[in-house]
Design brief:
The complex is a heterodimer of chains A (about 350) and B (about 350). With about 350 residues, chain A is an alpha+beta fold. Chain A has helices at about 5-20, 20-30, 35-40, 50-60, 65-80, 105-115, 175-185, 200-205, 230-255, 280, 300-310, 315-325; strands at about 85-95, 120-125, 130-140, 145-155, 160-165, 185-195, 265-270, 285-295, 330-335, 335, 340-345. In chain A, strand 9 and strand 10 (about 335) form a beta hairpin. Chain B has helices at about 5-15, 30-35, 60-70, 90-105, 170-175, 190-205, 215-230, 260-270, 290-305, 340-355; strands spanning about 45-50, 70-75, 80, 115-125, 135-145, 155-165, 180, 185-190, 210, 240-245, 250-255, 285, 315-320, 325, 330-335. The chains are: A alpha+beta (about 350), B alpha+beta (about 350). Strand 8 of chain A pairs antiparallel with strand 11 of chain B, so a sheet runs across the interface.
Chain lengths: ~350, ~350
C-alpha cells in the first residue's frame, strides 16, 4: 500500500466504518468505479477491516484517487443524509433571470465562482432524483490541499430559493454564500432560522410539502388512537371541548405524520407582564430569557400539547409559526419577531 | 462486627415506634396526639435562612475541592447503630477487606477485578457543620491500584462518598437512643458496583438501610430561589430550569433566565422585611410563599408567550453557576459558600424520605 495516497486510505477506512454492513453492497453497486468482476469478488460477510483491505487493493488496482472515494461518500450521504445538523438558508431578491437558471449553468457558475474565491477547493455536484442539486466541497487554502475528511454538503432545490447546509465553519460561510448567490442569480442569502438533524423534515417544513389538513368540521364521535373510556358521562361532557382542541391543534400543526423536527429555540426580549406583580410590570427593560423546546418529534409533541389541553387553544402564533413559517429559531421582542440575519455579497 | 443484641433487633423489626420517635412526629404537636403519623407535617420547613458561609478557612481544602467539583448521587440513610467516629481507621480496613473479598468472589464483575487492590480511607470533614447536634460529616474514598504496580504508580481515586447531617431537626436528633448516629444524607460518585458494595457494608455493619433520594418539586424550587437570592453576592450567571411535559412524545422545555432579571423578579416578590436594618440582606429568612410567588412569576411570563402551563409538567432540573440539582437525585454544589445552605435543605429532604 506504499504508493497509495494516505488520504485515500483514511477516507476509505472511515467510509467503510461508517456505512452499515447491510448497506455496503448497494452503495458500492451504485459506484461505477468497480468492474463487475471486482464487485463480485467482494465477500460482504467479512469483517469491516478485511473489507477495507480488499477495497484498498481494488482501488490501487484501478488507480483511484481521493476524488473517486469522495464520489462514493457522496453516493452514501445522498441516500442517508442524516449525518449531523442541517441548517436552512433562503436566497433573497432574485434578479430577473434567477428563475430560469438551470442545472448546467448553475454547476458551471458555482464551480467557477467558488474556485475564484478560494485557491484550493474540490467541488463535486450531483443532481438527485427529487430535483435536488447536491454539492460536496472539500476546502483547502492558499497553502494546503483540500481536506476531504471534513467536507461541507450543500443541497439546493433549483427554481426555489432554498439551500440546506451541513458542516460549514464560520470562515467558510461567506465564501460559500457568495458563490451561491452569484451562481443562482440572487442578491443575498439569509439564515432561515431552521435547523434539524433530519434533512427531509426541515426540507418538508420549509417547502411545505407535507400534508397540512385544515379541517373545518370533524365527524363525530372523534376517533382517537388508544382511546380509553373511563367514564361515559365524563367522556360525553368533555367530547365537545376535546373535539375543539383537536381541531385547533391540527389546524396549527397539521394532521397525520409530521416532519421530524428536534427543537425550537425562542430568544425572548419582551417586557415582563403579570398584573399581579406591579414592580416587574412597571419596568421598561425587557425580561430576557431563552426557551428551548426539545423532543424526538417536536411538532407532534406540540400538537398533542394543544389537543390534550396542556397548551391552551387557540395555539399561540409563537408555536404555530414553526410549521407556518418553517422556522425553529425566533427572536421575540415587543415589536414582533426580530430581523433575521442577512448577508449580502461584498461589492467587488 | 457484631450485630446488635437480639432484643433490640426484635423490637425494631416489629416496628415498635415507642422506642424511637418517628421524624415526622417531631415536626408537629398534633401528630403526637394522634395514632397515625402526622401526614400534614410531612413537608419541608416553610422558611429558612440563607447565610453564605466562608468555610474555606475551616474545611480542609482538598476535601472542599472534592465536594465542590463533583456531581453526587444522593440517597437517604437511616440512623447508624454503634457508629463511632473514633473507629474510622478500623472501618477503612474492614471496608477494604470487604470490597476485595467481594471482588474476588466474582460477585461484582469487573474486568480488572482480580488485578486491582482497593485502599479505602474514612475521614472526618471537620468544619462542615453548623450546630453541635449534627454528627460530623464522614468522607469515604476508595483508591485503586493494580496489584503488581510499581511503588511509584499513583493510586487512582475511583470512588468517593460522604455521609452528612447539616442542621438536622434537633428534636428528632435528641429523640434518638444513645447508640444511634444520624447521618441521613449520603452522596456518592463512582462506579455503581462500588456504591452497592459500600452500601452493603454499611447496612451489614450498622444495621441501617439506604434508599434513593429524589429531589422533589418543592425542593428544586427552593434551590432555584435560594440560588437566585445569592446573585448579588456571587453571580449565578443564569438560572436554568428544565421541565418535562407529559405529552406524546415527551416534550422537554429548557427555560434559561438572565441572572439580573431573575434577581429582579425574586426581589419583587419578597415580603417586606420586618427585621431590623442591621440584619444582613442575605441572612433574612425566606418563606415558602416567596418561593412560590417567584416560580409563579416565571411560569406566568412563560404562559403569556406560549399559552402553555408549565405546572402541567414536572420540573426535573434546576441549575446555575452555583450548582445544579436534578429530580433523579443528582446534585452539584459548585460554590463552597453555599454548600451548607444546600446540604441543609437536602438533609431535611433525606430525613423526610426515611421510611421510619
Amino acid at each position: 500500500m506504499g504508493s497509495m495516497d494516505n488520504t485515500v486510505k483514511r477516507l476509505l477506512e472511515r467510509l467503510v466504518r461508517r456505512i452499515p454492513s447491510r448497506m455496503l453492497k448497494t452503495t458500492l453497486d451504485k459506484w461505477s468505479r468497480l468492474t463487475a468482476t471486482q464487485r463480485q469478488s467482494i465477500d460482504y460477510t467479512e469483517s469491516k477491516w478485511a473489507l477495507t483491505e480488499k477495497l484498498l487493493a481494488i482501488c490501487e488496482e484501478n488507480e483511484l484517487t481521493v476524488k473517486h472515494i469522495a464520489e462514493l461518500e457522496m453516493i452514501y450521504v445522498i441516500e442517508n443524509p442524516n449525518l449531523g445538523m442541517w441548517h436552512a438558508f433562503q436566497l433573497m431578491d432574485p434578479q430577473d433571470d434567477a428563475h430560469s437558471v438551470e442545472l448546467t449553468q448553475f454547476k458551471e457558475q458555482f464551480k467557477s465562482h467558488l474556485s475564484e474565491l478560494i485557491r484550493h477547493v474540490s467541488i463535486k455536484i450531483k443532481k438527485h432524483t427529487d430535483e435536488a442539486v447536491w454539492i460536496r466541497i472539500a476546502w483547502g487554502d492558499t497553502f494546503s490541499r483540500p481536506n476531504h475528511l471534513k467536507p461541507t454538503y450543500v443541497v439546493h432545490y433549483l427554481q426555489t430559493p432554498y439551500v440546506f447546509l451541513s458542516s460549514l465553519t464560520s470562515k467558510q460561510k461567506p465564501l460559500l454564500s457568495q458563490a451561491l448567490v452569484l451562481s443562482t442569480r440572487y442578491q443575498a442569502i439569509k439564515d432561515a432560522n431552521l435547523s434539524g438533524r433530519k434533512l427531509t423534515a426541515i426540507r418538508d417544513l420549509l417547502m411545505k410539502q407535507y400534508l397540512q389538513v385544515f379541517p373545518t368540521k370533524f365527524p363525530s364521535p372523534l376517533a382517537e388512537r388508544n382511546r380509553v373510556v373511563s367514564n361515559l358521562h365524563i367522556e360525553k361532557e368533555q367530547a365537545g371541548s376535546a373535539a375543539n382542541r383537536h381541531q385547533m391543534a391540527c389546524e396549527a400543526f397539521g394532521d397525520g405524520l409530521l416532519p421530524q423536527l428536534q427543537s425550537a429555540v425562542y430568544k425572548l426580549e419582551t417586557k415582563f407582564r403579570d398584573h399581579t406583580n406591579k414592580t416587574m410590570t412597571e419596568r421598561d427593560e425587557p425580561f430576557r430569557c431563552v426557551v428551548k423546546f426539545a423532543s424526538t418529534n417536536l411538532l407532534e409533541s406540540l400538537r398533542h400539547s394543544a389537543s390534550s389541553g396542556v397548551a391552551s387553544t387557540p395555539v399561540t402564533p409563537l408555536l404555530s409559526s414553526v410549521p407556518l413559517k418553517g422556522k425553529n429559531y425566533f427572536v421575540i421582542t415587543d415589536n414582533g419577531p426580530g430581523p433575521s440575519s442577512q448577508m449580502k455579497p461584498s461589492q467587488k | 462486627v457484631r450485630t446488635p443484641i437480639d432484643s433490640i433487633v426484635a423490637q425494631r423489626r416489629s416496628k415498635n415506634k415507642s422506642y424511637r420517635q418517628s421524624y415526622r412526629s417531631c415536626l408537629g404537636a398534633a401528630s403526637r396526639l394522634g395514632h397515625t403519623p402526622g401526614w400534614t407535617a410531612r413537608r419541608l420547613n416553610t422558611s429558612r435562612r440563607t447565610k453564605s458561609h466562608n468555610i474555606t478557612e475551616k474545611v480542609n481544602p482538598e476535601d472542599l475541592a472534592l465536594l465542590v467539583k463533583t456531581e453526587w448521587q444522593l440517597s437517604y440513610v437511616t440512623p447508624l447503630y454503634q457508629f463511632r467516629h473514633t473507629q474510622l481507621r478500623s472501618y477503612s480496613r474492614q471496608l477494604s477487606a470487604f470490597i476485595t473479598a467481594e471482588k474476588q468472589q466474582g460477585l461484582a464483575v469487573e474486568v480488572e477485578g482480580a488485578q486491582t487492590s482497593f485502599r479505602v480511607s474514612f475521614s472526618v470533614v471537620q468544619g462542615l457543620g453548623e450546630t453541635d447536634d449534627d454528627a460530623e460529616t464522614v468522607l469515604v474514598q476508595i483508591h485503586s491500584k493494580p496489584v503488581f504496580a510499581g511503588k511509584d504508580e499513583a493510586q487512582k481515586l475511583v470512588w468517593s462518598g460522604w455521609l452528612t447531617c447539616i442542621n438536622g431537626n434537633p428534636e428528632y436528633l435528641h429523640s434518638l437512643p444513645k447508640d444511634f448516629t444520624c447521618l441521613p444524607l449520603f452522596g456518592s460518585h463512582g462506579a455503581e458496583n462500588l456504591t452497592s458494595l459500600v452500601k452493603s457494608w454499611f447496612q451489614q455493619t450498622f444495621d441501617c438501610c439506604f434508599g434513593p433520594l429524589e429531589i422533589n418539586q418543592t425542593c428544586l424550587q427552593w434551590l432555584a430561589a435560594l440560588w437566585t437570592n445569592c446573585h448579588i453576592e456571587s453571580s449565578i450567571q443564569h438560572l436554568k430550569m428544565i421541565w418535562t411535559l407529559p405529552v406524546e412524545p415527551p416534550l422537554q422545555i429548557t427555560y434559561t433566565v438572565n441572572p439580573q432579571n431573575a434577581w429582579e423578579l425574586w426581589n419583587s416578590v419578597r415580603t417586606p422585611s420586618l427585621e431590623s436594618r442591621e440584619e444582613e440582606e442575605t441572612a433574612r429568612s425566606i418563606d415558602i410563599e416567596e418561593v412560590t410567588r417567584f416560580m409563579q412569576g416565571l411560569m406566568s411570563h412563560f404562559y403569556r408567550h406560549f399559552r402553555l402551563d408549565l405546572s402541567a409538567g414536572r420540573l426535573s432540573q434546576v441549575s446555575s453557576a452555583l450548582g445544579s440539582a436534578k429530580f433523579s437525585g443528582r446534585v452539584k454544589m459548585s460554590n463552597s459558600r453555599y454548600i451548607l445552605t444546600t446540604l441543609s435543605l437536602l438533609t431535611e429532604c433525606a430525613l423526610l424520605k426515611m421510611p421510619i
